[in-house]
Design brief:
This protein is α/β, with parallel strands linked by helices. The chain contains 9 helices and 8 strands. Strands 1-2-4-3-5-6-7-8 form an 8-stranded mixed sheet, sandwiched between helices. α2 packs across α3. 46% of the residues are buried.
């Protein structure tokens, strides 16, 4: 694309479901993947994606059950993690930087813990450590939703009562990590945001006291430290030539050896648990 601020809408099939995404930035530039919060979508990054797309190939996903991606009825954070892995494999992205918000940050943590070699640097925006919390039942908003309400209920249950392995596995993350806390205006307990940073081996925590939606409330305050943390992009093999090809719907996806073991079994187990 000549205009790197322009955005293309695309989709790819990964693991049997269609994942929609927005892509911008120079083809072949180092890849950056954006993962949204619960109930949001790829469009939520619209205010900050252009700042990253100046020198990166930016991929903003609609996670399963959100936006234009499939709403398959089976939902969990591990399934979302595996969807992201399938997305990377389908586009030939061997190693990426990831910026993720809230629920998307938990998905990113599961990804970076399961496949450390696939994530170079990780930015977690107002993400709490996966510790049990008082369970609450959300009230469905009125009107038509841009996400599957059943997904919201299923994911909220797992966030309230997380798998204990998620907390332990934070220690497996090898990516340099920047944790951004929203400060006292956020609804998330900031001590749990700090705990997340403490449990990731190479992480540091910075507070931007504008609340939970840092990238939306203060886009320049968000993009400046994130761009500095990600560093100057350099030409590399991060973006493989497969990214230039249009994936064919239904075509088999080849998974990298670092992440293939156990994925099908985990997906089947999660479907049984959710269904």
């Amino acid at each position: 694309m000549d205009d790197h601020s322009s955005v293309e809408q695309a989709s790819v099939e990964a693991g049997g479901i269609r994942l929609a995404y927005r892509v911008s930035g120079p083809p072949g530039a180092p890849p950056l993947v954006l993962l949204h919060a619960l109930g949001e979508g790829a469009a939520d990054w619209g205010g900050v994606a252009p700042a990253f797309a100046r020198d990166r190939r930016v991929y903003a996903l609609d996670l399963r059950g959100h936006g234009r991606s499939d709403w398959p009825g089976a939902y969990s954070l591990p399934l979302m993690r595996d969807d992201v892995l399938g997305f990377l494999d389908a586009l030939g992205l061997e190693r990426v930087d990831v910026v993720a918000h809230s629920m998307g940050g938990l998905v990113a943590c599961l990804l970076a813990a399961k496949c450390p070699a696939r994530v170079r640097r990780l930015v977690l925006e107002d993400v709490a450590a996966p510790l049990p919390r008082e369970r609450s039942v959300p009230v469905r908003p009125e009107g038509e939703l841009a996400f599957d309400w059943d997904m919201a209920l299923a994911v909220r249950r797992r966030i309230d009562e997380p798998d204990p392995r998620w907390l332990a596995d934070l220690g497996r993350i090898s990516a340099r990590t920047l944790v951004l806390g929203g400060g006292p205006r956020s609804h998330l307990p900031q001590e749990r945001v700090a705990e997340l940073a403490r449990r990731i081996p190479d992480a540091r925590c910075v507070t931007i006291p504008v609340g939970h939606l840092i990238h939306a409330a203060a886009p320049e305050q968000f993009t400046a430290p994130v761009r500095e943390f990600l560093g100057d992009p350099v030409p590399s093999a991060l973006a493989a030539p497969l990214e230039q090809q249009t994936p064919q719907r239904g075509a088999p996806v080849q998974h990298g050896p670092s992440c293939a073991d156990g994925r099908d079994e985990a997906r089947a187990a999660e479907r049984g648990r959710v269904g």
